[in-house]
Amino acid sequence: xxxxxxxxxxxxxxxxxxxxxxxxxxxxxxxxxxxxxxxxxxxxxxxxxxxxxxxxxxxxxxxxxxxxxxxxxxxxxxxxxxxxxxxxxxxxxxxxxxxxxxxxxxxxxxxxxxxxx
Length: 117
Known about the structure:
Blueprint: E1 2-7, H1 16-29, E2 33-38, H2 61-66, E3 74-78, H3 79-84, E4 97-99, H4 101-110, E5 113-116
Parallel strand pairs: 1-2, 1-5, 2-3, 3-4
Family: Belongs to the DsrF/TusC family.
InterPro entries: DsrEFH-like (IPR027396), Sulphur_relay_DsrE/F-like (IPR003787), Sulphur_relay_TusC/DsrF (IPR017462)
């Protein structure tokens, strides 16, 4: 089964982002094919330069960088969201790949299950 986890919220102010990452890891542990897409404000989760000093804003980048170790290698972000937020792809997790809106639509059509957070 193919799972697509679509992240759309900023990483802080709630626990949804971390819980969704945990859900993706659990799916992968049961040998499910998992893809993650970071869209809209969720793209901030992929930043390598998150504020590690603020405990209320514990960065997720450590977990995201470890995802390939758990066979979650399909990690994407929307290139338009990068552009609209003035974020350079060089500042994002190195294994994350850019997607266009059309490519996202194709990925969504190919998924058996889609979870949006």
